[in-house]
Write a structure and sequence with these properties.
mainly alpha; 25 helices; 2 strands; globular
């Protein structure tokens, strides 16, 4: 009852005109920041952090600026799906998985359904995670502390296992794609020894490694544009998309078919989000893979399955709330964006940690209340802007292609301010096109380059801790079951492949 009373008080503060106005402003800013390729929540929060000092002076409260920054974070999570669906360019790394089915839906005249599914799934994921946050913050924080290096590596291995089947029935090509992504993830200086690795042609630009957004924008921006031009796809289907209140209501009703992906994304995303340094991107990719495995029609994924839009969108919004939990209860940022938020709290003189809830309830509960408010505001704003988003699809592809190209160039440069990364992005786009011509799946490579930099140091640090004994991944009470589950999920498709090959050989003899 104490929690409910505190939450009601927090909601009342969050709904005060000034705080509500900041939440609306933050969501709208975040929506467009998230939709702009190369920006994302980290850049948006970091750029606008200095303005919060003005807000703090005007309101005399630390709650108001934090509500503003949290609303930007929420809005950016919603906004990342917009360019993923309408243009095929992920607005941020958290929305990469949304392109897998969101873009095919847009190409077949179902952009409105995809956008509505993204908005409603984001709302569901954000709301479910906020409820979990409200009820179980302290115990969940202690669970997150149980995850050491072996546990986090086991979780990353499980993520790879869920993606073994993502490339369809051609498992060898899928495994090749994952290995190729892992190789790209090792480019740069070794994080433990400091030795250079795979710095091609001694180019200085490779020293910092291959940035994920460079790969993502190249593959899903430039690569998709070249593929569309080569395939000579008609843009009539996209031009036919019109928006009416009746069509929006029909799209909302059709969302009922995406309940499985939304549920998986909401709970899995929150769990991954509370793990320190994991973040929303691994959560969204894992949610997509698990939803595909649990689906009755896995072959429809990648061709416009609404669950394939709902799962990653529910997951990245759920994970964004989950990543707030270790930041507030332990003082450990759960994602790059929460690291910026943590810096803001420290600058304001607040001390995140176990005592924050007891010593600063006037800050904590209005902030939690604002999570609920921001979720509702983001849903309404997102649905209201759907006609604007669909307007992009009415343009002929002869106009849309140059816009995609320019956005990809500008987005990549804006993210890293380095022309080397821009040229590398174009190269990845051309490479992705040729891989698609050879029927190699791209999603597993994207997963590998996201999770590789997380998995590699955890693997090596675990082995250093155990003197090279790999049993550490099997004997620990949390890591063991996760590792065994991952190995089973990896072996099952391989066993099926071998069985099918043997049957094919015996068929002529019979």
């Amino acid at each position: 009852m104490d929690i409910l009373t505190a939450l009601m008080d927090g909601l009342w503060v969050a709904l005060q005109p000034a705080n509500l106005g900041l939440a609306v402003l933050g969501v709208v800013i975040g929506l467009f920041v998230g939709a702009m390729p190369g920006l994302g929540s980290v850049n948006g929060v970091a750029i606008l952090l200095p303005f919060t000092f003005v807000i703090q002076e005007m309101t005399g409260s630390y709650t108001a600026p934090m509500i503003f920054l949290a609303a930007i974070y929420y809005g950016a999570m919603y906004g990342g799906a917009i360019s993923s669906i309408t243009l095929g360019i992920p607005g941020a790394s958290t929305a990469v998985a949304t392109t897998f089915d969101g873009r095919p839906m847009a190409l077949t005249g179902q952009a409105d359904k995809a956008l509505v599914a993204a908005a409603v799934a984001s709302f569901a994921g954000g709301t479910i995670s906020t409820v979990l946050f409200t009820m179980f913050a302290p115990p969940l924080a202690s669970v997150a502390l149980q995850f050491g290096d072996p546990e986090i590596f086991a979780l990353m291995l499980l993520a790879f296992a869920t993606f073994v089947g993502l490339g369809g029935d051609d498992i060898p090509k899928t495994i090749f794609s994952i290995c190729f992504g892992l190789v790209l993830a090792t480019v740069g200086f070794d994080i433990i020894s400091g030795e250079p690795r795979l710095i091609f042609f001694d180019m200085v630009g490779f020293s910092d490694g291959i940035q994920f957004l460079v790969l993502a924008i190249g593959v899903y921006g430039i690569g998709e544009m070249i593929w569309t031009i080569n395939a000579s796809r008609s843009d009539d289907k996209m031009a036919e998309v019109t928006i009416t209140a009746k069509r929006v209501m029909a799209a909302i009703r059709s969302f009922a078919g995406a309940w499985r992906g939304t549920a998986i994304g909401s709970f899995l995303g929150f769990f991954v989000g509370i793990l320190p340094a994991a973040g929303a991107t691994p959560g969204s990719l894992m949610a997509y893979g698990v939803t595909k495995m649990a689906s009755k029609d896995p072959k429809s994924f990648g061709k416009g399955n609404i669950d394939g839009v709902a799962a990653p969108e529910a997951a990245n919004n759920s994970a964004s709330t989950g990543s707030m939990l270790p930041m507030m209860t332990l003082g450990i940022p759960g994602s790059p964006t929460t690291a910026v938020l943590l810096a803001g709290m420290v600058i304001w003189g607040l001390q995140p940690g176990p005592l924050l809830f007891s010593e600063q309830p006037d800050f904590v509960w209005p902030l939690i209340g604002s999570f609920y408010v921001s979720n509702v505001v983001a849903l309404l704003v997102n649905l209201a802007f759907i006609p604007v988003f669909l307007w992009m699809l009415r343009m002929p592809f002869t106009i849309l292609a140059p816009i995609i190209f320019v956005l990809s160039l500008v987005g990549t440069y804006a993210a890293y301010q380095d022309m080397f990364d821009v040229w590398l992005m174009v190269l990845f786009g051309a490479g992705a096109f040729f891989l698609r011509l050879l029927d190699y799946p791209l999603a597993p490579a994207v997963l590998a380059i996201v999770l590789g930099p997380i998995a590699e140091p955890k693997l090596r640090q675990s082995l250093l801790f155990s003197d090279g004994d790999i049993s550490i991944f099997f004997t620990r009470p949390i890591a063991g079951p996760i590792t065994i589950t991952a190995l089973i999920l990896i072996l099952l498709p391989l066993i099926k492949l071998i069985r099918d090959k043997l049957r094919a050989r015996r068929a002529p003899a019979g």
